Amino acid sequence: MSLWTWFGLKEGSASTDWPLKGNEDGQQGVLGMPRYDPGKCEPECDACASACVTHAISLVSSTDAAVRPEVDWGRCIVCQRCTEVCPTGAFTASGDWALGVHERAELKWDVQMSERIVREVTERTRRPFARSLHVRHVDAGSCNGCESELQALNNPYYNLHRLGIFFTPSPRFADVLLVTGPVTKAMHGPLLETWEAMPVPRWVIATGTCAVSGGVSGGNYACGTGLDGVLPVDIYLPGCPPNPAALIHALLMIAGRSRQRMRGGQIER
User: 187 Cβ partners below 8 Å, 6+ apart?
Assistant: First the structure.
C-alpha cells in the first residue's frame, strides 16, 4: 500500500456535504457582493459613483428631486471600493455570493422587483437535468480569474462529480454552455460555433461580471460587453470572479435543484 493510499484511508472523505446537507460551503470569511441601503444615502453625495471603475454605481435624480445612486450588480467586480469610501455606511461589506439570476434586470437595485414572485425553473428544464448535467466551458476573453475558480470545482473539497455535474470537452455532448470573459472579437465566431454544435435543449450561463456586462474592459476596440445580444442567456452570474459555491448554485439552478436568491438587486435574508 502506498503512503498516499494509506493517508487517504486514514483521513476519510475530504468532500463537503454542501449543498446536499449542512452549511459548510467553504466561503466563510470570504468577501462577497457589497450590500446597499439607500435609506442611509446623503443627497448629492457622489463618493461611491466616483470610486466605481465599472460604473456599477451611477447617480440619477429620484422622485424627490434628490440625486441618489443607481446600482447594477451585474457590472460590479466586487472590489469593495464603494464600501471604503461611503461616508454613511450605505454600502457595506458582506459575504453574499449566491448571485445567479434568470433575468438580467434582477441584478439592478429595484425595490418593486425584489418583492415580486419570480417564476422558478419550469418542469421542461427540470426533467432532463434533474440527475445529470454536462457542461462545456468557453473562455471568451477571460483574465483566467473565473477559470481558477472553475478548476476548484474538481478538487476533493467541492468534488463536482458527486452532484452529477461533469465538464465535457465536446459541445456535442453538452447540456450547458458556460461562458467566461467579455466576448472578444476573436472569440465571437468560435463561441457561436460551439453553441450551434450543442444539441437541443441547451442552456447558457454568463459566468463572471465580464460575461454579464463586459467588466472593466468591456466595449473597447477588442471586445464586446458580455453575452447579451450574442447568445440567449439563462443564468446571469456576476462576480470577479464568482466563487466555487456560486458556480455550483448557478449550475443547480439550471438543473432545477436550487432556487434564485437575488431579487431586484437584493439577496434574500
Answer: 138, 139, 140, 141, 181
Q: Work out the angle at residue 239's Cα, subtended by the Cα atoms of residues 207 and 120, and round it to the nearest 5 degrees.
A: 60
pLDDT in tens, the chain (269 residues): 577 666 666 667 788 889 988 888 989 889 999 999 988 998 888 999 999 999 999 988 766 556 778 999 999 999 999 999 999 999 999 999 999 999 999 999 987 665 555 444 444 444 455 678 999 999 999 999 999 999 999 999 999 999 999 999 999 999 999 999 999 999 999 999 999 999 999 999 999 999 999 999 888 999 999 999 999 999 999 999 999 999 999 999 999 899 999 999 998 86
Query: Is CATH 3.30.70.3270 what the domain over 33-96 is classified as, yes or no?
Result: yes
Residue 217 carries which side chain, given as an amino acid letter? S
- State how beta strands 262-263 and 266-267 pair: antiparallel
The answer to whether the pTM exceeds 0.70 is yes
Positive or negative, the CA dihedral 200, 206, 212, 214 is negative
Q: Which helix (H) or strand (E) holds 113?
A: helix 111-115
* Domain boundaries of the chain, sorted by first residue: 33-96, 123-267
Fold adopted by 123-267:
Rossmann fold (3.40.50)
